[in-house]
């Protein structure tokens, strides 16, 4: 079914609410913005209309999600955009095994999202607050939930089960769920277009590199493995997350170094990754600059980041044989020529080789191949998770 109309896309985090109004058929953004630093005296709303300069509006002190949604609604009505909306699409982080696709939100869906909050305690409760506030503001519109985890529900048991007593899965749902599903879904479909093949005949490794990082093995258009696990902590080295490590380290930190469980959790999620290794920043651009100026720890952080990534890609070639393409996306994957060149240098024994001219060309929104003609295919494809949400919302609203 053709998707038509303008959709309000809401991405509600623990202390922020992002919004965009997107034409579902083309992906064109009409307006966008963010309410951030909620629950603090510095709460602010920054909307932008098309290509016009971003505005800045202070919110009341300690503003919560409801006040943020009120500011968004006021801006939409000021600009005369409300009458053109056909649906509201909501990013929801965790749907567990209950949702393998996007759904129209009703009381049962709200209850299911709440029931999975223990798997995403920082995200699902915030997602629910955003949904409730938006439904109050736009009661006449259909509201659609698009789950980060849904795309990965096609994974086989051999990929999603941990080597733990089976009862922990069957009774408590402990398994690999994966995230960044909308991004992996979008870029694998775009890769199929570039390759000139039906999506159901395509095998790609989708690599989303940003502050959060994950890989997805896509076989015949479906996710068959992914690097993030029960939570987004597992897998690659990320901006502030550690990724894979020895599980016994947690016990060592608590028993030998006196860490509390909360301190361990904060260490793994907020103080590790590129930030922890470098001691400088979680931003790849800052680390590349520092490394170029001779900072050894910045250089080491980037080396570890690329080495871990190369090992994962090598492993995922098993799941995607015969591989059609390696796809790089996300802020780092789309823009860092240094990371891409370093990564493909590590993968040279597996038949990858970077084209320096193409690597410099395909950045800042440009999509294309950065590999040589004799190399395995490597594509750079800018992701567009908001468009996925808008398209699903428009389709389900029409249905």
Task: Describe the SSE topology.
Blueprint: E1 6-12, E2 17-23, E3 29-36, E4 44-49, E5 57-58, H1 65-78, E6 85-92, E7 103-104, H2 107-115, H3 124-137, E8 143-147, H4 157-160, H5 166-172, H6 181-195, E9 203-209, E10 213-219, E11 222-226, H7 248-257, H8 261-270, H9 273-278, H10 284-292, H11 296-319, E12 325-329, H12 330-335, H13 337-346, H14 356-361, E13 368-369, E14 378-380, H15 385-398
Parallel strand pairs: 1-6, 6-8, 9-12, 12-14
Antiparallel strand pairs: 1-2, 2-3, 3-4, 4-5, 7-8, 9-10, 10-11, 13-14
Explain what the structure shows.
The chain is an alpha/beta fold and 399 residues long. Helix content is 40%, strand content 19%. It has 15 helices and 14 strands. The protein has helices at 65-78, 107-115, 124-137, 157-160, 166-172, 181-195, 248-257, 261-270, 273-278, 284-292, 296-319, 330-335, 337-346, 356-361, 385-398; strands spanning 6-12, 17-23, 29-36, 44-49, 57-58, 85-92, 103-104, 143-147, 203-209, 213-219, 222-226, 325-329, 368-369, 378-380. The strands form two sheets. It has an eight-stranded mixed β-sheet, with helices on both faces. The protein has a six-stranded mixed β-sheet with strand order 11-10-9-12-14-13, sandwiched between helices. Helix 6 (181-195) packs across helix 15 and helix 10 packs across helix 11. The protein is globular, with a radius of gyration of 21 Å. The model has no long low-confidence stretch (mean pLDDT 94).
């Amino acid at each position: 079914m053709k998707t038509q109309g303008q959709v309000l896309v809401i991405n509600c985090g623990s202390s922020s609410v992002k919004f965009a109004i997107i034409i579902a058929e083309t992906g064109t953004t009409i307006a966008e913005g963010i309410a951030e630093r909620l629950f603090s005296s510095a709460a602010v709303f920054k909307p932008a209309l098309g290509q016009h300069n971003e505005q800045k509006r202070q919110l009341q002190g300690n503003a919560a999600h409801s006040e943020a949604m009120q500011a968004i609604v006021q801006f939409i009505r000021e600009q005369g955009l409300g009458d053109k909306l056909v649906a509201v699409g909501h990013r929801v982080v965790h749907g567990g095994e209950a949702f393998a696709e996007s759904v129209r939100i009703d009381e049962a869906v709200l209850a299911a999202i709440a029931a999975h909050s223990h798997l995403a305690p920082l995200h699902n409760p915030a997602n629910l607050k955003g949904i409730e506030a938006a439904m109050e503001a736009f009661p006449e519109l259909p509201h659609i939930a698009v789950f980060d985890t849904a795309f990965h529900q096609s994974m086989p048991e051999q990929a999603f089960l941990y080597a733990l007593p089976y009862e922990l899965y069957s009774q408590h749902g402990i398994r690999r769920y994966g995230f960044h599903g909308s991004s992996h879904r979008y870029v694998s479909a775009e890769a199929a277009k570039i390759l000139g093949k039906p999506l159901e005949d395509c095998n790609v490794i989708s690599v989303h590199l940003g502050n959060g990082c994950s890989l997805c093995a896509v076989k015949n258009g479906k996710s068959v493995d992914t690097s993030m696990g029960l939570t987004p902590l597992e897998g690659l080295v990320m901006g502030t997350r550690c990724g894979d490590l020895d599980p016994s380290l947690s016990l060592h930190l608590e028993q030998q170094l006196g860490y509390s469980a909360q301190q361990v959790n904060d260490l793994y999620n907020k103080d590790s990754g590129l930030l922890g290794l470098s001691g400088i920043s979680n931003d790849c651009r800052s680390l590349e600059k520092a490394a170029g100026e001779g900072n050894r720890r910045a250089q080491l952080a980037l080396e570890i980041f690329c080495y871990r990534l190369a090992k994962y890609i090598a492993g995922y070639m098993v799941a995607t044989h015969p591989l059609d393409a390696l796809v790089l996306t996300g802020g780092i994957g789309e823009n860092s020529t240094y990371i891409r060149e370093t990564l493909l240098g590590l993968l040279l024994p597996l038949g990858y080789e970077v084209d320096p001219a193409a690597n410099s060309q395909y950045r800042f929104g440009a999509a294309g191949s950065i590999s040589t003609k004799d190399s395995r295919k490597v594509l750079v494809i800018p992701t567009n998770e908001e468009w996925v949400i808008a398209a699903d919302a428009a389709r389900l609203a029409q249905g």
